[in-house]
C-alpha cells in the first residue's frame, strides 16, 4: 500500500517521476501535510452521503483524503500535465472523476445534475489557486448552485475580507457579496510550511455555509450590488459623494439620492463601510425607485 500523496516524501517522488515543474501562473502550491487535510475534510463534514466538487486537484493530495470519506468526488483541473499524474495517483479510488476544465468556464450546474444524483448533499472543498480565489467563489455563489457549502483554503487576507463586519478595515463589497449568500467563518489559519512551493502570503480555511434565502430581500439583486460597489468606490469619501459619483447619471440625480438617503434614515455623511447589509438593502430599495 502506498503512503498518502500528501507526505513530503511521496509528493517529491511523484514530482520527480513525472518531471513536474510548478507553474506559478496557475497558483500551484501543493499541500504536504495530511493532518491539515484531515482537518479541512472534518470542517466540511464530508460523509459517505456527500458529493464533493474540488477545484484544482494538483497531484491529488486533497482529492485522496476526500475520496476516502465522500461518496463521490468530481475535480476540475486546468493543467493538462496533471491528468496522467492524477490517473496514476488516484488509481486506488473508484469514486473520483477528474475533468480537464477551467472551473471558471465550466457548466457546474450540469455537472452536478449528472454526477451527484445519488448524493444527499454537495460540498465544494478545495485548496484554491490564489490568483483566482474571488472569481471562483463568486461564480459558485452567483450561479445559485444547489450546494450545502464551500470549505476552501485561500489567502488569509481574502478570508478576513469575506468574513468582515461593518466598520472594520477589511469590510467591503466582497464581505457583503459573500455574506448575502452565506454565513462565513474562518475555521483555521495555516502556516506556509505545509505547502510546496511555499506561497508568499498567509493562508486560512474558510467555511461558507449557504443560506436557504439571501441574508436580505431586495427588489433587485443586481442593483443592490451596484449600490454596494458604488458606496465603497472611494473609501475616504462620504456615502453621498460615492453614490453621486459612481451610480449611473448620479450627478443629475443628486437630489433623488439625497431623498432616498433620507427615506432610508441613513446620514449621507457616513462612510459606506459603516453600513450593515440590512442598511444597504433598505437604501438600494429606496434608490431603485429613482434608478430603475
Ligand atoms: N489540491 C492540490 C493540493 O492541495 O495540493 C493543489 C492545489 S493548488 C493551490 C491549485 C490547483 O488549481 C493547481 O493544481 C492548478 O493547476 C489548478 N488550477 C488553477 N487554475 C484553475 C482553474 N481556473 N480551473 C481549474 N483548476 C485550476
Automatic annotation (TrEMBL):
It catalyses: adenosine(1518)/adenosine(1519) in 16S rRNA + 4 S-adenosyl-L-methionine = N(6)-dimethyladenosine(1518)/N(6)-dimethyladenosine(1519) in 16S rRNA + 4 S-adenosyl-L-homocysteine + 4 H(+). S-adenosyl-L-methionine binds at residues 29, 31, 56, 77, 102, 127. Keywords: Cytoplasm, Methyltransferase, RNA-binding, rRNA processing, S-adenosyl-L-methionine, Transferase. Residues 36-212 form the Ribosomal RNA adenine methylase transferase N-terminal domain. GO terms for molecular function: 16S rRNA (adenine(1518)-N(6)/adenine(1519)-N(6))-dimethyltransferase activity. NCBIfam families: ksgA. This is Ribosomal RNA small subunit methyltransferase A. It comes from Bacillus changyiensis. The lineage of its organism: Bacteria, Bacillati, Bacillota, Bacilli, Bacillales.
Amino acid at each position: 500500500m502506498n503512503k498518502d500523496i500528501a507526505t513530503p516524501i511521496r509528493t517529491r517522488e511523484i514530482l520527480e517521476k513525472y518531471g513536474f515543474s510548478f507553474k506559478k501562473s496557475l497558483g500551484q502550491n501543493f499541500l504536504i501535510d495530511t493532518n491539515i487535510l484531515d482537518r479541512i475534510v472534518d470542517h466540511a463534514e464530508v460523509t459517505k452521503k456527500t458529493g464533493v466538487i474540488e477545484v484544482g486537484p494538483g497531484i491529488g493530495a486533497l482529492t485522496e483524503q476526500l475520496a476516502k470519506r465522500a461518496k463521490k468526488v468530481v475535480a476540475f483541473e486546468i493543467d493538462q500535465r496533471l491528468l496522467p499524474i492524477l490517473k496514476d495517483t488516484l488509481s486506488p479510488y473508484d469514486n473520483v472523476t477528474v475533468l480537464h476544465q477551467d472551473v471558471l468556464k465550466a457548466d457546474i450546474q450540469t455537472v452536478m445534475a449528472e454526477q451527484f444524483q445519488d448524493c444527499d448533499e454537495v460540498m465544494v472543498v478545495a485548496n484554491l489557486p490564489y490568483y483566482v480565489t474571488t472569481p471562483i467563489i463568486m461564480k459558485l455563489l452567483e450561479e445559485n448552485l444547489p450546494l450545502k457549502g464551500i470549505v476552501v483554503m485561500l489567502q488569509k487576507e481574502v478570508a478576513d475580507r469575506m468574513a468582515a463586519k461593518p466598520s472594520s478595515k477589511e469590510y467591503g463589497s466582497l464581505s457583503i457579496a459573500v455574506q448575502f449568500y452565506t454565513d462565513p467563518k474562518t475555521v483555521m489559519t495555516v502556516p506556509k510550511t505545509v505547502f510546496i512551493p511555499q506561497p508568499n502570503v498567509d493562508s486560512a480555511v474558510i467555511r461558507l455555509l449557504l443560506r436557504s434565502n439571501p441574508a436580505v430581500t431586495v427588489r433587485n439583486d443586481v442593483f443592490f450590488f451596484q449600490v454596494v460597489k458604488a458606496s465603497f468606490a472611494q473609501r475616504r469619501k462620504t456615502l453621498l459623494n460615492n453614490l453621486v459619483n459612481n451610480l449611473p447619471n448620479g450627478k443629475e440625480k443628486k437630489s433623488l439620492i439625497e431623498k432616498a438617503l433620507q427615506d432610508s434614515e441613513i446620514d449621507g455623511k457616513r462612510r459606506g463601510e459603516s453600513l450593515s447589509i440590512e442598511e444597504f438593502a433598505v437604501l438600494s430599495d429606496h434608490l431603485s425607485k429613482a434608478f430603475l
